[in-house]
Specification:
Strand order of the largest sheet: 1-2
Shape: extended
Number of strands: 4
Strand content: 5-15%
Number of helices: 2
Radius of gyration: 15 Å
Oligomer: single chain
Structural class: alpha+beta
Order of helices and strands: EEHEHE
C-alpha cells in the first residue's frame, strides 16, 4: 500500500501472487530448504537500491512503527 500525503489516499502498488499448485509447491520447497519465509508478488515490482544512510533511516522507522517496510521504485 502507498499513502499519498497530498491526496490522502492509499493506493495498492503491488499484488500478492495467485499461485497455482505447482508454483505453491516450489515456493514451499524453497522456504523449507532455506528455513525462511517467501512473499510471492506479481511481476513488476522493482526494489530500490538504498544507500547505507537510506537503509538506516528505513530500519529506524521499521523499529519505531513495529512494521516491516518494503522499499521499491514507482
Amino acid at each position: 500500500m502507498l499513502y499519498n500525503a497530498q491526496k490522502g489516499v492509499i493506493m495498492s502498488e503491488y499484488q500478492i501472487a495467485a499461485l497455482n499448485e505447482d508454483q505453491f509447491n516450489k515456493v514451499q520447497t524453497i522456504e523449507e530448504e532455506l528455513d525462511l519465509h517467501v512473499l510471492a508478488l506479481e511481476p513488476g515490482l522493482e526494489f530500490a537500491q538504498l544507500s547505507p544512510d537510506q537503509l538506516e533511516k528505513v530500519k529506524k522507522l521499521e523499529q519505531e512503527l513495529g512494521l516491516t517496510l518494503v522499499v521499491y521504485k514507482i
